[in-house]
Amino acid sequence: MTEPLAGAGAPQAFFTQEWAQLEDALAQARHSVAVRCKNTVVRPLFDALVQCRRQGLAVHLALPDTGASRHSAIAWERLSAIGGLIAWLPASASQLAYPPLVVVVDGVQVWTGKLSQGMSPLDDAAEVPGLVRWDAPAFAQQTRQVLDHEAGWMPAPDTVPTERLAQPASTALELRRDGAAAHQAWLAAVLHNHALATQAEIAETQRQMALFDHAQEQALGALMREYLRGKAQYLQQLALQDRAAQDEAHAAQQRWDDYASAQAAQDADTQPLPLDADALDQLKQMYRKLAMQCHPDRVADADQSRAAQLFQSLQSSYRRGDMAALYALQESVAQAGLQFVAPALRDAAHAAQEAQPEQDAAEEAALQARVRALRAALAQRHDALEALRTTPTWRTLSSQPNWDLWFAQQQQHLQAELERFALAFQAGAQPQAASFAP
Amino acid sequence: MSDPTPPGSALRTLAGQALTVAGARRLDLVAQTLEDVQQRETQAFFARHPDLLLHCVQNHYPLDAELLAEHALRWDWRRLSASAAIPWSLDLLSQFADCWDWDSLSKNRHLPWSPALLQAFSPKWNWGLLSGNPALPWSLELLESFAPLWDWRVLSRNAELPWTGALITGNTHLWDWVGLSWNEGLPWNLTLMTRFAERWDWTGLSANPGLPLDADMVAEFAGLWNWSWLSRNTQIAADAQLLQTYADHWDWTALSQRRLLRWTPELIAQFAARWDWHALSANAALPWDQALLEQWQDRWDWQALSANTAPWWSEALLERYADQWDWEQLSENLALPWSAALVAGWVDHWDWDRLSWNRALPWRQEGAAALLQAHAARWDWAGLSQSETMPWTADWVAACADHWDWERLSANPALFAALAGGAAGVDALADCIDRYADRWNWATLSGQIGLPWSQTLYQRCAAQVFPHLVAQHQDLGAPLLPADTVRTLLAEVDSGEILPGINLA
């Protein structure tokens, strides 16, 4: 099995409160900060860079020379007046398939992705907010080389303490004279890890939803069923007197039926395990590791079916928070001997160094195709994550610090509605159907 | 089982991945049902409280043109003009151009600001307020396009402008140079400062933390600085050399208060004759230890030392210099190793008024309740009532109900957050509010942002609460109502079908 991301390593985290985290990293920077923006820089980030420069750090900022960027409200001279370097790239640079933001801190840490929604007036709507952080010095050096090459900066002095270079320098991508293939290879590594981090975030979002679903069913399941039945019966009664209420009665009956069948399927689904912070961290790490090894996107056609089975097991084990199952899965993945189709970036870079011009072009074309495929996969995952995070369920579970309290409140609401139905039946006098409508 | 998920469900596309189809379906159905119930209850709630409805709608509802027109005489247009919820557009502004309060609009950060919008209502805007609105898309073109209209005095203080040397140089006759001098957003450097040396307000520059102050810059303008303000500037990194060079210029009292100097015993000794020892004694950034205390024992100001919040306090230290401390200062010092035993051990030394306002008292440690009761006559209950660190519970409130300062208790957000966050949640909070209904200051309570207002809580307090104060910071679900429902409710208020409303326009 070939490891395609030797230089990049796995992402360390996927943040949702990303600006606060990045701001903290910048405040702790000691030597240098290099930033590459796809559009323009946002004010808080620019202020943080000015602050870094004031504290004597080497600060490099590269961004496309578009009117919207250069003539925005940012006072660029504030940074250059105190010795920060700003590189205005050709306007076409904003069209490149590039993460909206790349930050290299002290030559040992890389952040790629996009700041939270609304932080920039030129937000790329196609990108879902979220930053991936790598604590991988070798990859940070590669990234710094890519940024330096594009912006025409002098190579940054080697500020990385040798003991922090976990990987030997030989695993780093070497830049060729034009740097194009290495840039594509670097971009593929970034996109690949973004896709993986986004997949992990989707799994975590769904794990929490599964946990919430289970807790909700325990707290509200029986009452919800009673309520839906009561509402259906109430509206059927109304429909006998008022034909206009028939559609509403039918819809209520349909919802009751749907819920009853969805509830019946619950037993087949194993109860998710609640986890403490340490156990969750361990679970996430294991998930990322296994996802890199068995995601169907990454294996040869012949192994697709086996990989799909393994990945499905990974998903359901993660959803249940079942660490033991993940350990067992690790064995299965090792035994499966899956063949990867992704080109080894390290090999590609080395091959590119030695290749003839026509082979260079072929290599670069292959990497470009790989980048396009990765971007498509990433966009798909972004859409999926965005779709999950706009569901009412996610909004509820992420905004309620005390789920039990919230369930208790909903119980009260449902009870009150049931009492209202009972009173209406007893009175025999039916209120207007329209008054029931939300 | 057939797939019962309706088309368009966001969850379905992922159902085969990590969330089961049934689980996704359940979540969808329960969420829809609870949302329906919530909406119906919200409608019923606002039907019972039409006065609150009007306030909540005006402050928080995304009113469209139709609703605005239908109830034009009812609205408080000044309040609407400050709204963040209205879907602002050029058309909407045009349609009700004679109704809006243009001063409020000029300050509003939520309008879709653009050169076209500024141009469209050029005579109506308050350009002084616009000049200070950070939400405008500030650019050199924008400044140029409306140059005669801006208030340049306000612009000079606006740090959000795209400041460049050229912008400053090109408009020298328009700027307010005092305002510029205090502005942190300018691209400060030696060239810019030298070029306009005669125009700057050097007090403003000396105080400006936006300056890249280093030894060269300090030397370049040595005769121009206001040294008192420069000594206070947080950006200046004064080392021993810089201190020595301008020893006769620095304000040594200000320097003695500075936390960001690189304090060492050597630095203290080098300028021992110049420091303000009163200010130095209160400075928590010094490398405090027994040796330093003893080395300058005859210079320290023990009153200021007693107020020092450096993390070096111990019971032994208190004991050792018990006769020299200023116990009034100690009583309000946050850095002491506070415990019930410490308070009890020096009962006759403390200043109990100051002690009562001390945020660091050990109210969450064992023995806190006994401490409270044992000295009930000594405490200043106004100070205790505003405490954020008390372990607030209904029992805790009840135990000292006759002692609390209820005005301050009404303004204490920590109390309400703690009561609502307990096991019984909002019910416990509502019970507590009910129980002391005649003691709270209801105006303070109504404006209390820390109170977790909900429809249930409002319902229980409806008789005493001030709707307009609650609606300032709470929407109570109003934005969730469909426009048709709001229209129906407002029509019912007009027709008198529900409780008579109050016309607040």
Show the helix and strand layout.
The complex is a heterodimer of chains A (about 450) and B (about 500).
Chain A: E1 13-15, H1 18-27, E2 32-37, H2 43-54, E3 58-64, H3 67-70, H4 77-80, E4 85-89, E5 101-105, E6 109-114, E7 130-134, H5 137-151, H6 180-241, H7 246-264, H8 277-294, H9 304-320, H10 323-336, H11 345-354, H12 357-389, H13 392-399, H14 403-427
Chain B: H1 21-48, H2 50-60, H3 65-70, H4 77-81, H5 90-95, H6 102-107, H7 115-120, H8 127-130, H9 140-145, H10 152-157, H11 165-170, H12 177-182, H13 190-195, H14 202-207, H15 215-220, H16 227-232, H17 240-245, H18 252-257, H19 265-270, H20 277-282, H21 290-295, H22 302-306, H23 315-320, H24 327-331, H25 340-345, H26 352-356, H27 368-374, H28 381-385, H29 394-399, H30 406-410, H31 413-421, H32 425-435, H33 442-446, H34 455-461, H35 467-473, H36 483-495
Helix pairs in contact in B: 2-35, 31-32, 32-34
Structure characterization notes:
The complex is a heterodimer of chains A (438) and B (505). Chain A is α/β, with parallel strands linked by helices and 438 residues long. Chain A folds into 2 domains: 160 residues, Endonuclease, Chain A (2-Layer Sandwich); 196 residues, no CATH class. Chain A contains 14 helices and 7 strands. Chain A is globular, with a radius of gyration of 27 Å. The termini of chain A are far apart. The N terminus and C terminus of chain A are likely disordered. By secondary structure, chain B is mostly helical. In chain B, helix 31 packs across helix 32 and helix 32 packs parallel to helix 34. The interface between A and B is large, with 64 and 57 residues.
